[in-house]
């Protein structure tokens, strides 16, 4: 117990890689001015990744999700803001990039930091609070103190959404939002900022992003709006100058803008379009005063053709002057563009991708389940809202993806021979998928409708190769599923030929076991394939005999069981975890509690997995810590710190090389499996 | 189609393409020779001709022997053992200094010395082949040297000395501890006292356990729950205490 009381003394697990990117943060993906690193938020951490070596550094310090991120023009500082609960103060953290350490923590805004911007010479940082704060504060970067603050908009205007600093002047910045667009001037001596509203005339727009272009001969700034057009405003006169494009507006609004040295604009739209926009002078013949008018023209346009459902482009990060740029989308994908290829003629034959390369895919929602194929550490299958993905663990790349719109996959299992991926869905269906070598999706093998009435919540698969005795189950593949209503059902996968003579599969319901009163949270089958244990949120775990299809033993506890796992010699014990934070060891034969350990200081235990040799147990839960226990001693050997959201599942890889844990923020963390052999000898 | 039917998830494991190992690049064996022999300024003037260099002034004309190398001055050769060398043996016709002459009869003294001297012990050898190859006997280990040592089979002196020292230290320590105890610095719990405490603890536990067993099955009200929880906590504490006392045979009580 001494270890759990003082987790500081426990050695740490080594974090190998993190697969994750929070694409929803506006302009969250940045390229460092040193051109060697990309920076992106992931939950409450900020990740700095080397482009060439793919080495990641993590900046831990925020207490809640990061809501905005910026890099200083010199590249010396990063700044990130977070969200927090209503009534609390949200932190801004300035990080030292070279030291990868916290430089200053600035606390003044409430609830949410909307946007941040550094002045061109790194002198000041301007922060914009969220809807409930709505104030602008200027901070001195070197003294780490606030200089002055002001209400972001006039009382009658709506929320302010974005912020941009001048490219040349340390004392000028611009804010924009719902019916408000203001140019601010800082007076350092008097510690005051003064706002000038831009004269917009009759025009009413909601500005979502601002791009400065005041280092050109005629100083302008561009604003992207929710109506899908771009506004140009003169910095000197503070007058609205032009609006475009006139036709073909960007659908679902302009989300992000980036200016290239040549004076062209890169536009990221809400429907996933990345466009190159050029503007030029046009003389309108019909108008009486033959004055030149500045017009926009969409020169190039790109969409990801591979994903059917488009998701918004939320950030464009230029590498250097923009010879290469990185695009982050709301569904957590990162693309790398080569500008020369993007600017070239988009002939479908020669240049089908227009210079876009998908460099990173990540989960954008909480990951519900992960599973390794039997005895294989190179692949994992993950389940989330709408999607099943198969990942290559060696290269940390996504291999296959299956999308089912608007449904959540709660649990996933792979048959022993690896030919089928079986998934449990929120709509009460069990879907089985095969593997295709050619297509990037998974071919459907069967769909069992109405498998459970309140959604299928847990699933497990076993394969019988031969009968052990006369009463044993027939050889074949069996599925054990648990539903939201508490039923546990046993199915057999049967192959038949349909009327066209093709191989088809269907599920044959063998038995329904109605004992649980609450949702079945986890199902595990023992190694002999003759019994299974199900945990439920009604506070029971039931051990079922799969051959007789009856209840063998039941375990009661005053908790919501979240995870269960077999352990001990020949699976004679089960380990449970739930909302009471206890790790319980139970005897299978008698259903008696042998041992209960305090598994976590706070929050429930959501995931339990045992190593192949049965000596080590890994647990994870709402306290965001991954713990490696020795099974016999019941002591914490290692602790993994790195998750920024509750851990939903954790698995030890079958070869005992890595531990993989996934969180509610969609991050997949890959930990090095520690050298516990030596550690074990000490006890 | 058939291929797709049989595909399993294991087929997705990326196969690392085996890189063809290239044979090492050919290098000529004359490479070093060529490198040594080649001088880089050999063909410098081949295309452009010689560089235009300013001509020497008329007073700086070419002088006789000015192009010959300047050699260092000649040094007298000395043998390396010059300083160690003894003076030569006197010649036959050299006159002794100041007419001094020894009266020692070298012939008889040599003869007497040799007659009276102890003959030299022959070196012990052994022969291991029929050809008569000789080897020194001493380092061979064939002669029992160590077993013939005087103190063979006895405990070395340093060991007995060390043992005595240890014993003395232990005695001193025991005396010190006894002294310390006598002064009453630390009292050890006697067996009876320990037994009494254990018995008392167990009795307490049993009493609470009895009460606990007699609790009603349904704990529906807050006081009942509190009572049950309190009893459980007490019992757990007692169990811990009993375990602590049982685990240790000798218990010291510090003041």
TrEMBL record, chain A:
Pfam families given in the database record: WD40
GO cellular component: axoneme; motile cilium
Signal peptide extent: none
WD repeat residues: 106-149, 513-546, 598-639, 640-672
InterPro entries noted in UniProt: WD40/YVTN_repeat-like_dom_sf, WD40_repeat_CS, WD40_repeat_dom_sf, WD40_rpt, WD_repeat_EMAP
Listed PROSITE patterns: WD_REPEATS_1, WD_REPEATS_2, WD_REPEATS_REGION
Keyword field: Cell projection, Cilium, Cytoplasm, Flagellum, Repeat, WD repeat
Protein location: Cell projection, Cilium, Flagellum; Cytoplasm
Cited Gene3D superfamilies: YVTN repeat-like/Quinoprotein amine dehydrogenase
Quaternary structure, from the entry: Microtubule inner protein component of sperm flagellar doublet microtubules. Interacts with BRCA2. Interacts with the CCT chaperonin complex. Interacts with HSP70. Interacts with AK8. Interacts with CFAP45. Interacts with DNAI1. Interacts with IQDC.
Stated role: Microtubule inner protein (MIP) part of the dynein-decorated doublet microtubules (DMTs) in cilia axoneme. Important for proper ciliary and flagellar beating. May act in cooperation with CFAP45 and axonemal dynein subunit DNAH11. May play a role in cell growth and/or survival.
Protein family per UniProt: Belongs to the CFAP52 family.
Protein name (record): Cilia- and flagella-associated protein 52
Species for this entry: Pinctada imbricata (Atlantic pearl-oyster)
UniProtKB/TrEMBL annotation, chain B:
PROSITE patterns: ENKURIN (PS51665)
UniProt-annotated location(s): Cell projection, Cilium; Cytoplasm, Cytoskeleton
Enkurin domain mapped to chain residues: 161-253
Transmembrane spans: none
Keyword Oxidoreductase tagged: no
Alphabetized UniProt keyword annotations: Cell projection, Coiled coil, Cytoplasm, Cytoskeleton
Disordered: annotated segments: 32-52, 72-98
Biased composition (Basic and acidic residues): 32-47, 72-96
GO CC terms: acrosomal vesicle; axonemal microtubule
GO molecular function, one term: calmodulin binding
Coiled coil: 221-255
Location, primary (coarse class): other
Protein's UniProt name: Enkurin domain-containing protein
Organism of this sequence: Pinctada imbricata
